[in-house]
Amino acid sequence: MHEQHLDRRLFLRATAATGAALAVGTSLGAQSAAAAPGGFPDYAYVRTLLTPSQLKYNPTGEIIFPTIRGVYDKLANPLGRYYLYYAPHDAPGGICLAYGNSLEGPFTEYPSNPIVSNKWSPYYSVSHVSSPHVLWNADAKEFWLYFHGENTTTRLARSADGIHFTYDKVVLSASMLPAGTTETSYARVFRQDLPARGARYVMVFMLNNTTNHRDIYWGWSADGRTWTYDQQPLVRHTDVGAVNIGGPHLLYRNNSTYVVYNKDKESGGDLMITEVGNDFSKRNHLGVFYNSRSTAPENGRSASPSFGTDGGVPYMVYEAGERLAGSIAVARG
């Protein structure tokens, strides 16, 4: 599984391969008969990958925000072909790792979790750290971890092996967005060229403000470290009839860019999709990307998806279940 970059040249090279893991966001290889909006595969739940009660590191009985990464083509001696990052949200949180050889599992908990905690002297001491998004930065040949703590601040740490990280800097804070912003968190970063903005990386994240309604915002960067942020939402909660939206993820298909994100359970609990275009100027709201089942483990809510392929088969790893009471599951397209 290649990194979830959106670089077109790498995308085209990857999709030309046969019998190998392809660029994420594609559905080449095995497909279901139906299709989601935008021509994406119609994902179907396969199994639960991680349940809090079965984990050794389980301070709060809940885990959120999975990020799946193929590491077999990046590391000489990885613990498994795939690394799955996740975290509890509530204090103290903690960035965690599991590893496995198939996207359908099983995954083994890393014995020394958390790999990043809520105290990292002399850089910070906060109530919690959570929402790990790990980017394979091909330019630096490093794993770049973006994570939040507190909810107002997103930080960057860097690693050669995907396990042991070195602190870098704050990359996003509420002070960088409009007055009244109270949360800037759940960020994911992707490799995508925006020549008109001099950018090579794009970030999508959730923003809350004093109205207590959450929207999707975005920013761009030349190097993944120093960012400029649009002061207007990429997707507003009112655009899709929701009280709150969050957990955004970018996908690339048919020469266009899309953002997939979750509605809060009060607004249906499904994953939604909006076409934003390669320059992020479109706002084509396409509806439900993934319809959450009413039965366990989803119980009417799916959130924070991460995407990958295994042998050409597309997969989605995501939160399944009510917020702070769910598990990490996998669906196959």
From TrEMBL:
InterPro entries: Glyco_hydro_beta-prop_sf, TAT_signal. Residues 1-35 form the signal peptide. This is Secreted protein. Keywords: Signal. SUPFAM superfamilies: Arabinanase/levansucrase/invertase.
